[in-house]
Amino acid sequence: MSRIRLAPVYAILVVLTLVSVVPFLWMLATSFKHGPDVYTKVPSLLPLDRRTGEWSPTLENYEHVVGIGGLGRAFLNSVWVCLVLVPAKLLVDALAAYAFARIPFPGRDRLFALLLAGMMVPTITLLVPRIHVTQELGMFDSGWGLILPNVASVLDIFLLRQFFLSLPRELEEAALIDGAGRMQIFWRIIVPLSKPVLAVVTITSFIFHWNDLVWPLVVLNDPDLYTLPLALQQLASSESGRAYYIMAGAALAVVPVIIVLMVFQRRIMEGIAFSGLKS
Amino acid sequence: MIRRVTSTAAALALLAGLAACGGSKDAAAATTLTYWMFADRTPQAGQVVEKLRAGFEAANKGVAVKIVKIPKDDYNTKLGTALATGSVPDAGTLDQPLVARFALDGTIKEVPAGTVDEKAFYEGALTTNRVDGKLYGLPQDHTTVGLFYNKTLVPVPPKTWDELKRVTAEIHQKDPKIAGIVVPKGDGYGGWMWPGFVAGAGGEMASVKDKKVLFDQPPAVEALQLWVDLLKSSPREITDSDKPFENGLAGMMISGPWDVANIKDQFPDLQFSVAPLPYKTEPAGNIGGENAVVFSKGKNPDLAWKWLKYLTDPANNTQLAQALGGFPSTIAAAERDAATFGPDQAAFLEQLKVARARPAVPQWIQINDEIIAPAIESALSGKATAQQALTGAADKTRTLLGWTG
Amino acid sequence: MAVPVAERPTDTPRPGRLLGRPGRWRRDHLVGWLLIAPAMAYFIVFLLYPALAALYYSFTDWDLRTAPNWVGLANYTDLLFDGAKYPHFWQSVRVTLLYTLIAVPLTMGTALCQALLLNAIRRGSGVFRLLLFLPVVTAEAAVGAIWRWLYDPQYGLVNVVLGLAGIPRQNWLNTPGLVIPALAFIAAWQCGISMIIYLAGLKGIPASIREAAIIDGAGPVQRFRRIVVPMLRPTTFYLLVTGVIAALQVFGLVYVIFSGGGGRSVTGGPEQAGLTYVLHLYLFAFRYDAMGAACAMSFILLVFIMIITALEFRLVRQEAS
C-alpha cells in the first residue's frame, strides 16, 4: 500500500494513541511535580511552577516513596514471586490445555466445562475458603502462599486450548505414527508453534500478578514479605490526597512491566489463529 | 493396625515433646505479642510507633511486639478473613462502629476491671468502646470534624445555622463561580458527619437503651433541611471538582484535623482557618478515631492489655494520637500538651468536648451506608423532602433492627 | 506464524481411529490424566473446594466470626424478594447489566479498531503497540486518581475536549445517569489485552487469502466483511465470552474510582448508580457482616453467567451453520 493511502490510518492511530497516553503522561508529570503545583486551575501535562509557569520538576516524590520503609524490598519480593509464578503457571496451564485440546480421555469435556463454571464464581467469595486451605497446607504468611494458590488459571487454559485446537493436526499425527510420545510432540511441535499465544499468557499473567493486591493482602502478615501493590496501597490509603506520591510509586511500578512487554510483545506478532470452538 | 496406631501416637508424642521443648526455650527468650494497626500516615508517624514499641520492649524484658501495618482501606477485609480462619492477632486497631458488633458476638474481650481509670479518658471517646454499659476497648486517639473557612471569602466564621446560611448565600451571590460551602454527600462519609448537625439542633440519632430510632424527629429533619438549603448557593458542579475548597472554589468545607497539614503542604497560598461546627441550639459534634481491642482468640491477653494501657498512658498518648492524626484521648495528655497543637487545632479540641459517639448498634455501618446515606442523598437531590426521606429511612431502620419506637 | 486454513482438513480424523491400536488409547488416557494432574490438583484444592464451601455458606447466616447457622434458602429468597433487607440488590443488577451492555461492545470495538490499524502499518507499529498498551499496565491505585482528575467537572480534560465539539460540561462521576458510561469508557481505555489478542489473530490470517481477494478486486470494506470478520470469529467469540464474564464481575474499577482513600467507605457513587453487583457482594461479605448472603449472591450470579454463556455458545453455533 502506498504511503498516501496510509496517511489516514496513521492519523486515526495518533488520535487513539493520544487517548491512551495522555492519562499516563499526566501520571508521569504529576510524579515530578512539587506538591503545590499538582492542583492548578488549568491542568498541566508538564511539571511547571504554578505561579511562574516555568519548568520546575522535582525528584522529591520519588525520594519520599523510595525512602518509605520496605518499598525496595517489596519491589524485590514482587520480582521474585513473578519470576517463579509466571513460568510455573505457564507450564501447568499449557500442559493441561494441550491435554484438553488434543488427548482424548474419558470425561475430558465434562471436566473442562466444570473448570469454565469455576471461572464464573467471583473470587471475592472464594477468598476466605482459599485462605483456609492455604493455612491447612502450612503455607499461610509465606512465599509459597503467594505462589501455589495462584499456580493455574482457567482463563489461560481456555485461551491456550482454543489456540491448540487451531493448530494443524497433520504434524502431530505424522509424529505419532513415527512413534513419538505425547510429551515429545508437546515440546517439539506444539510449543514452537505456540510462541505467540504463550507470549500473550506470559504478559497477561505477569501484569495480573505484578498488580494483584487482594491475595497478598490477606495471605501475608509479615511486612518483610509484602509485595509492591501492598506497599503502594499503603501509600494510597494513608497519605490521603497526596496524588504525587501515588503517581511516583505507580510510575516506578510500571517499569518492569514495560520491560516484560517489550521482550515478549514481538513474539505475539507472529500471529494467533483460533479455529474450531468445539466445546 | 493397633500397632500402627500406637507407633503413630508415640511419634506424635515425641514430636509434641520436641515442639514443647522448642517452645519453652523460645518463651524464655521472648513472648511475641502481635498487634495490627493502620499503615503509617507519614514516615514520621512510623518512627513514633517504632519508638513506642522499643520503649515497651525495654520496659518488659523478654517481650517482643510484632506490629503489622495494613492499608487502612483494606484493614477490615483482612481482619474479616483473619477472624474467619482463626489467624487473629493478640490485639489491634478497630473502627469505632465495629466495637459493638465484635463485643456482642464475643470476638473481642471486655476490658478487665481495674485495667484503666475510666475517668482519665474523654467521655465521648470512651463511649465509643462501651456496649451495654461494659467497656471493650481503649481509645487510642479521637477526632472530629470542624468548619474550614477561607479567610478571604469568610472574614468571620459563622457560629449558628442562620449565620451559616447567610454567609453561604452571600459568597455565591458575590461570585456565582464560587460555592458557599462544600455540602457533604449522601454517602457513608456524609452519613458519619451528619449526626454532628443533628446534635447541634438538640437531637439524637437513636436511643439504644429505649430501642428508639430518633432521626425522623424535628432536630434531624431540620439538620437535613439545613444541608438542602445550603446546597442552593453551593452548586454541585463546583463542589464536585477535586479539592474545591483548597482551590478557592468554595468558601467553606467540613473536614477533620488531618486536612490541616494536607492543605498547608499542598496549598501554601490558601489563607484558611478552622472553627467549630455551627449549631442551632447547642454546640455539638460527631466523633471518630481509633480504638484498640484485645481479640478473644489471641494468645496473650494480659500482655495485650498492658500494651494497650501503655499506648494510652498520658506519657505516650499525645505522640501516638498525633501519629494517628487525631487528638489524645486522655484528659491529662490533652491538657498538658494543649499548647503544642497550635491555633488551627483549637477548634477541634473545643468541639471534642461536646462530641457524641455513634449509637452502639451492631448493624450501624449498614444502617449508615444503606439507609441513612441514600436518604440524605434523595433529599439533597430533591427527590424527596427532608421529612419524607427521613421518615422512610427511620421505618426501614426499625424493620431492620426489630425496634418499634 | 500463519495457519494455512485452506489446507486444514475439514473432517479431522480422530487420532484414535487413525492409529487404531487399543494400547495406544489406554496409554493416551494415562498421559492425558497426567498432563492435567497438576492443574486439576490445583483446581480441586483452590477452586472446587472453596466453591463448595461457599455454596454451603450460602445456605447459612455466616458473619465470618460466629459459627454459621443453617438457614436453608432464606438468603436466596430474601435477596430476590425482600426489598427491605437488601434495598439495593436489584439496583446492583441493573447497574451491572447496563455496564456490561455498554462496556463489552465498546471495549471489543476499540480493541478491534486499534488492531486493524496496527495491522495495516509497518513503520512505527512497535511504538504504537507499546503506547496503546500503556493503560493496561498502569497500577490500579493510579488509575483511580488519574480518571477522577480527567472527569473533574471544573478542570477535567474530558470536558475540555468535549467542549471543543460544543458539548456542555458534565459532572461525569456525580450524575447518576453518566456514571456507568464514564466507567465503561475507562474499561475501553484499558482494552490493550483484547487488542493484542485481536492483533495476534489478524497476523494469523494467511497473506495468500488476502492477496487472492485483492486480485479478485475486493475493496477494503468487502475484504473486511468477507475475510477478516469470519476469520476473526473464534477470537471474537473468546473475547466475548471472557469479556462478558469479566464485566458481570466488575469490581476493582468501581472500587478505585469511588474510594477517596483515607479509609472512606465505597458505597457505589451517586444514588448507588455505580453500585455494581460484585461491589454490593463485597460490601455484604466484609462490611455488613453477611458472608452467607454474599455467597448466595455469587451463586445467583453464577447461574446467570452460565445461562448467558450457554446462549453465546448457541448463537455462535447457529451462525457457523
TrEMBL record, chain A:
Ranges for domain ABC transmembrane type-1: 75-264
Residue runs in coiled coils: none
Topology with respect to the bilayer: Multi-pass membrane protein
Pfam families hit by this protein: BPD_transp_1 (PF00528)
Domain of life according to the entry: Bacteria
Keyword annotations from UniProtKB, A to Z: Cell membrane, Membrane, Transmembrane, Transmembrane helix, Transport
Main subcellular localisation: membrane
InterPro entries: MetI-like, MetI-like_sf
Gene3D superfamilies: MetI-like (1.10.3720.10)
TM ranges: 7-29, 78-100, 112-131, 143-164, 185-210, 243-264
Compartmental location: Cell membrane
Similarity-based family: Belongs to the binding-protein-dependent transport system permease family.
Protein name (Swiss-Prot/TrEMBL): Carbohydrate ABC transporter permease
Protein's organism: Sphaerisporangium corydalis
From TrEMBL, chain B:
UniProt name for this protein: ABC transporter substrate-binding protein
Keyword entries, A-Z: Signal, Transport
Cited InterPro entries: SBP
Gene3D superfamilies the record matches: Periplasmic binding protein-like II
Cleaved signal peptide residues: 1-29
The family this protein is said to belong to: Belongs to the bacterial solute-binding protein 1 family.
UniProtKB/TrEMBL annotation, chain C:
InterPro entries tied to this protein: ABC_transporter_permease, MetI-like, MetI-like_sf
Residue runs in coiled coils: none
Subcellular location as annotated: Cell membrane
Residue stretches spanning the membrane: 30-59, 97-118, 130-150, 178-200, 235-258, 290-311
Cell membrane in keyword set: yes
Keyword annotations of the record: Cell membrane, Membrane, Transmembrane, Transmembrane helix, Transport
Topology with respect to the bilayer: Multi-pass membrane protein
Predominant subcellular localization, coarse grouping: membrane
Protein name in the entry: Carbohydrate ABC transporter permease
Source organism (scientific name): Sphaerisporangium corydalis
